[in-house]
Specification:
Blueprint lengths: L8 H41 L3 H37 L2 H7 L4 H49 L6 E4 L2 E8 L6 E8 L7 E13 L4 E13 L6 E13 L5 H4 L9 H9 L6 H31 L10 H25 L4 H24 L7 H32 L14 E4 L4 E3 L13 E3 L2 H6 L3 E2 L1 H17 L1
Parallel strand pairs: 8-10
Antiparallel strand pairs: 1-2, 2-3, 3-4, 4-5, 5-6, 7-8, 7-9
Helix pairs in contact: 1-2, 1-4, 2-4, 2-7, 2-8, 4-7, 6-7, 7-8, 7-9, 8-9
């Protein structure tokens, strides 16, 4: 009878646990950091509208799907990297290989776990984010409208509409209509436009995020020193956009509330290659690109984590963070090219994922065949150029420090400022003035307050400092 190969559930569950523990820890920490960054501008909106605990909790919950889109990929990559770095540093990977478990048997649980995480990221991107953006817009509109409705009272100047001040004589509690209305509009300039009407009412639109004041049987006054105007009307409408106190905290773009199908249909309804059409397609592909990138970066965490060895400093975490930042730099660059029309939207948005897919396949193949991540020639060239860069930076810094010291003016004897002391070399019995190339030599372990004390102690100036002292003495003698 043929033996049926079964999935090693014990191995898979063990590896999944090793990856998920650091994943959830990283996920919690990163969400706290991102939440605090978003919370600071959000508090101005909350405090200005005096939002209750229930509405505050709802607004916060609507923020998290957007945060998850960035924290989940980062946490997934860190989870895989940290999990396999621990297995490798504790020689458990070596024990797996000694037991006949190849790298190709270790890869499937990584793919399964990261694919599930990527699917959840995709659900957040394509479903939760549009729903949360729409709910955020609806709740923000309701809160702003409640503030306006509560602020408009009889015999009270209402300033809840920003630069538009409303005064009403009476409010019908059943119909909500106003009587004897006075409106001051300061949005057009320094001189307010005064509108007076017999009756009026207010209507609102959640889709356009604005309110409209409808006035009947009145007159409009525009005071101006050069040309004042008075216009009588039967019906007049003032449109006022509802803007939160801090628009960055609760800003909702129209394309963000559209589903994937709605984005595609609206883009297809636009003829030509317009900016608005490209933005719709960019949003459509963005919701698919980032979850796919989550999967690819998580797979890259496997070879990075396996670089750890017993007694060897792990570099996988630092390299993982660098790769994560580099991915989003490429993503931003591709998005900008798509917005500018340099490349087709699909090509520009998916280029980073294609590059990282090739890199993931290349690195997984090399670690499966017991090879380093980079070929020997590439690694040697990289180390060579890195050493050249490092030495160039050191030499540049040393040259800058030497030039700075040379620019310092040496003041003799008691006029010398504090901090510019004379350094002495007890081995050669020489002293050096500030700005000398040997001022900071390793053998200069003594300091003197001035030249006189150095000479009295039996030290002589070095040849370079001797020339400086001679020039200084000649200059002082000629001045006398």
């Amino acid at each position: 009878m043929k033996k049926v190969s079964k999935m090693p559930l014990l191995l898979y569950s063990y590896l999944a646990t090793e990856m998920l523990e650091p994943f959830f820890a990283s996920f919690l920490i990163m969400n706290c950091v991102f939440f605090l960054v978003r919370l600071i501008p959000f508090l101005n909106f909350v405090l200005d509208l005096n939002i209750g605990l229930a509405d505050f909790t709802r607004l916060i919950s609507y923020m998290f799907p957007n945060i998850f889109l960035y924290t989940i990929p980062m946490a997934a990559m860190m989870g895989v990297t940290i999990g396999f770095a621990r297995l490798s540093s504790d020689s458990e990977i070596l024990a797996f290989k000694a037991s006949g478990i190849s790298m190709y048997k270790i890869i499937p649980p990584v793919v399964i776990v990261t694919a599930l995480i990527a699917l959840f990221t995709s659900y957040c991107s394509t479903r939760l984010i549009p729903l949360s953006e729409a709910a955020m817009k609806q709740l923000t509109y309701q809160l702003l409208k409640e503030k306006i409705n509560n602020g408009i009272k009889p015999h009270v100047f209402t300033e809840a509409l920003g630069d538009v001040v409303v005064y009403v004589e009476d409010v019908d509690k059943k119909t909500g209509r106003w009587s004897k209305v006075w409106v001051s509009d300061m949005r057009d300039g320094a001189n307010p436009t005064i509108t007076m009407a017999s009756t009026g009412k207010m209507i609102s639109s959640v889709n356009n995020m604005n309110v409209s004041i409808i006035l009947d049987n009145g007159s409009l006054h525009r005071p101006d020193i050069a040309n004042a105007q008075v216009v009588e009307f039967d019906r007049y409408q003032i449109n006022i956009p509802l803007q939160p106190p801090d628009s960055k905290a609760t800003r909702v773009k129209q394309k963000n509330v559209l589903s994937q199908k709605e984005l595609l249909l609206e883009a297809q309804s636009i003829e030509g290659d317009t900016t608005h059409k490209r933005k719709l397609l960019i949003e459509f592909h963005k919701r698919l690109v980032l979850p796919a990138g989550c999967l690819l970066m998580s797979l890259l965490g496997l070879p990075l984590g396996l670089q750890a060895r017993p007694g060897k400093k792990a570099i996988g975490i630092q390299a993982g963070l660098g790769i994560f930042i580099f991915y989003y730099i490429l993503f931003t660059f591709g998005k900008q090219m798509a917005e500018d029309g340099v490349l087709p939207v699909m090509v520009a948005m998916w280029i980073p994922n294609l590059l990282f897919f090739l890199l993931a396949v290349f690195w997984v193949y090399r670690i499966a065949n017991e090879q380093p991540l980079l070929p020997a020639t590439v690694s040697e060239k990289g180390k060579y150029y890195f050493t050249l860069l490092q030495n160039g930076i050191k030499e540049g810094f040393q040259l800058f420090r030497t030039k700075t010291e040379e620019q310092q003016q040496w003041v003799p004897d008691d006029r010398q400022p504090k901090g510019l002391l004379i350094s002495g070399n007890p081995k050669k019995r020489q002293f050096h003035l500030p700005g000398c190339k040997d001022y900071r030599c390793k053998s200069c372990t003594l300091v003197f307050k001035d030249v006189k004390i150095a000479l009295d102690s039996g030290f002589s100036p070095c040849p370079q400092c001797q020339q400086r002292l001679t020039r200084t003495a000649t200059t002082q003698h000629s001045q006398e």
